[in-house]
Amino acid sequence: MKNFFGLGGGNDKALAAQYAGQESASSKAGRKRLEGHRRDVAKTDRQGWAWADNQRMSQDRRGRRP
Questions:
Q1: Domain that holds residue 50
Q2: What contacts 8, CB < 8 A, 6 or more positions away?
Q3: Angle, CA of 21, 27 and 30, to the nearest 5°
Q4: Quick one: where's region Disordered (predicted)?
Q5: What are phi and psi of 14, to 5 degrees?
Q6: CA 4 to CA 1: how far, in whole Å?
Q7: d(C-alpha 42, C-alpha 49), whole Å
Q8: Of 31, 36, 52, 61, which is the most exposed, with the fewest CB atoms less than 10 Å away?
Q9: Is 12 a domain residue?
Q10: What CA–CA distance (Å, rounded) separates 3 from 10?
Q11: Is 38 helix (H, G, I), strand (E, B) or coil?
Q12: Could you give the C-alpha distances from 22 to 6, 15, 34, 35, 55, in angstroms and in order?
């Protein structure tokens, strides 16, 4: 098999020149993963505060017991 789906090699320099200056797929995936994590942290923080506020209001309605 001479050329397996165009991956036979020999065109490494041409491909390097074609994609020079572009972000690699693995770098892009890593960046997106970090961005998603940062969004999730903020969302989780907001949910935690909402839960705490809800619990506080619930306790105030029933009257706090010492």
A1: 25-66
A2: 2
A3: 155
A4: 18-66
A5: -65, -45
A6: 7
A7: 11
A8: 61
A9: no
A10: 10
A11: helix
A12: 21, 12, 19, 19, 50
The residues, any chain, with a CB within 8 Å of residue 31's CB and separated by 6 or more, are: 23
Domain count within the chain: 1
Q: Where are the beta strands (DSSP E) in 1-66?
A: none
Whether 54 is covered by a domain: the verdict is: yes
Kindly report, residue by residue over 5-56, the tens digit of the pLDDT. Answer: 666 667 788 877 888 888 898 999 999 988 887 778 888 899 999 999 999 9
Does the pLDDT of residue 63 top 90, yes or no?
A: no
Asked if residue 62 belongs to a domain, the reply is yes
44 inside domain: yes
Using only C-alpha atoms, the chain has a radius of gyration, in whole angstroms, of 27
